Amino acid sequence: MRNRTLFDSRGNPVHVPPPSPNYGVPGMGEREWRLNRARASIHNVSAGLLPRAVAATLFGLFAAVLMYFEGVKHLGLQDVFGSAALAALIGVAAWYGMFRLSYRPPTWGTIGSDLAHCQLCIVCGYDLASIRDGDDGCIVCPECGGAWRLAEVQGRPVDPRPGET
Ligand SMILES: [Zn+2]
Questions:
Q1: Which of 141, 139, 140, 142 is nearest to 152 (CA)?
Q2: Rg (Cα) of the chain, in Å, rounded?
Q3: What single-letter DSSP state applies at residue 20?
Q4: 11 alpha carbon to ligand 1 midpoint, in Å?
Q5: Extents of the domains making up the chain
Q6: What value, to the nearest 5°, has the Cα angle with vertex 61 and ends 56 and 62?
Q7: Which of 47, 83, 148, 157 has the most CB atoms lying inside 10 A of its own CB?
């Protein structure tokens, strides 16, 4: 996945990287998890590459096995090759569909809230916790220059993490 361009609070373009491949795998720290969730929202995906690939592979295998047995039922055992070819076709289609559709619509409420709570730069991951607001209320990242007005979103309620209600 490529970086995605959006505009910071001062209207300058910044390039947000995709979530890290292991986002969605248990064991990630709270701040890093929030940073990755914000990046995943910007990229319209639900998780990092690894969980998406695993989910798509399981779904593809499941669809292929179903198709194979359905094929054997209708084509008979003398055309096992036909059933296997159909199963492969369906499996690949299901894999691709699942991978592409592991989508999440971006919501700025969640993104802003995540950024306000993790206090990491969404572009470069720099720790912004000790950076003071500028005159226009923006926190300017010393690493990449991105300017973020986090104060306006800090009052929003925070979504609980999955399974943590
Ligand atoms: Zn930065």
A1: 139
A2: 21
A3: P
A4: 15
A5: 4-46+104-153, 49-101
A6: 100
A7: 148
Distance (Å) from CA 75 to ligand 1 centroid? 59
Cβ atoms of 104 and 40 closer than 8 Å: yes
DSSP classification of residue 120: B
Terminal-to-terminal C-alpha distance of the chain: 31
CA of 23 from ligand 1 middle (Å) equals: 19
What was the pLDDT predicted at 158? 43
Residue 113 in contact with residue 158, Cβ under 8 Å?
A: yes
What average pLDDT values come out for the chain (165 residues) when binned by 10 residues? 85 92 91 93 86 94 96 91 95 94 72 86 92 85 88 48 44
Q: How far is the CA of 97 from the centre of ligand 1 (A)?
A: 34
Q: Contact at 8 Å (CB) between 118 and 127?
A: no
Distance CA 137, CA 132 (A): 9
Label residues 97-112 b or e (16+ Cβ within 10 Å = b). ebbeebeeeeeeebbb
Q: How many CB atoms lie within 10 A of CB 164?
A: 6
Amino acid 54: pLDDT: 93
